[in-house]
Amino acid sequence: MALLATATVAFKTINTQIRNRSFLPLQKHLSLSSSLSSFSFFRTVSGRAMELERKNSTVIDENGVLKKGIAEFYDESSAIWEDIWGDHMHHGFYPPDSTVSLSDHRAAQIQMIEQALRFASIPLEDERKWPKKIVDVGCGIGGSSRYLTQKFGATAVGITLSPVQVQRANALAAAQGLANKCIAVALQDLVWFEILNLELFRRPFCEMGTGQVSFQVADALDQPFPDGQFDLVWSMESGEHMPDKAKFVSELARVAAPGATIIIVTWCHRDLGPDEESLKPWEEKHLKKICDAFYLPAWCSTADYVRLLESLSLQDIKSEDWSPYVAPFWPAVIRSALSWKGLTSLLRSGLKTIKGALAMPLMIEGFKKDLIKFAIITCRKPE
Length: 383
Ligand code: SAH
What we know:
16 helices, 7 strands, methyltransferase, S-adenosyl-L-methionine
């Protein structure tokens, strides 16, 4: 994991160099190299370029390994989770004074979605301002997408690294009558429908805005969508898997339409104190064990996320620590894993799932020791 963290930093540096174009003079030097009299200068420059290239490909390798691990982890464990916990693969929200029963975890998971919408100031009372196009980044088997689609009568698209999740998410959408029947209609066909006024064919396409959802395998760090598409950008407990948080956040902002709301609910480590440069060694060690079990790269703090959003000039940035509201969650997951059904399912599952289950007490300990924070961070893209 330390290697991964180092590699991520290197990748970020290269990214920044490309963004700031400080990389370009280097390329220019290289193309002019034949006319340079100093051979040693050329050697230094091309050496640097090769070194950067080597670092870059190491990062791609590391990210590739991580992505493969994430995909396999969810391919393997999603069915068991669904069987025991249902289609939401995220914490429940258990407010101390709420009516949500501690044993009704599905209700608590729905509460999580509702509270996140409220925290982000989505105008729930004004139907005209409801989100109409939603992207669910790191969608699992699509619990949030389907819920939000039905709640708002919106169109949603979910992305995940796991092909098994995509298949299941699309099957559940079809079973609930939410599958996007119009997905195969190409734009040029729509033009023909307009010209020929084929109302019959046009209708399904026009209905896309009313409660349809589709899922695909895609990387959150390189989303297959044009800029400015979605008026709600939703990431429920996927940010912790992202090896490059800057790229993750910039992709969320890129696909957001002007005025869109971005909601990130994610695992963070505690904010560092003013005199601290890093976490304490025992804290790093603790998180590393969790990283190994759940296929996570290096963690960041809520303050890091806020800084990243600020650097992109996003507006109305808000964050809150919801750790106290999710406290009953992991003990409940452990209880269900220890039930007869949980144990037999676990034994039938693969090693990755069992490893994940064994790491669950580490999450509880991390929360108790104030190392792990369950964070919500929201903002708006300027109009
Ligand atoms: N948001 C869902 C699932 C959370 S589990 C829910 O609340 O039910 C984490 C999800 O993030 C998984 O679906 C995993 O495949 C996805 N994920 C992790 N890294 C990703 C990446 N780089 N690109 C897309 N999805 C990713």
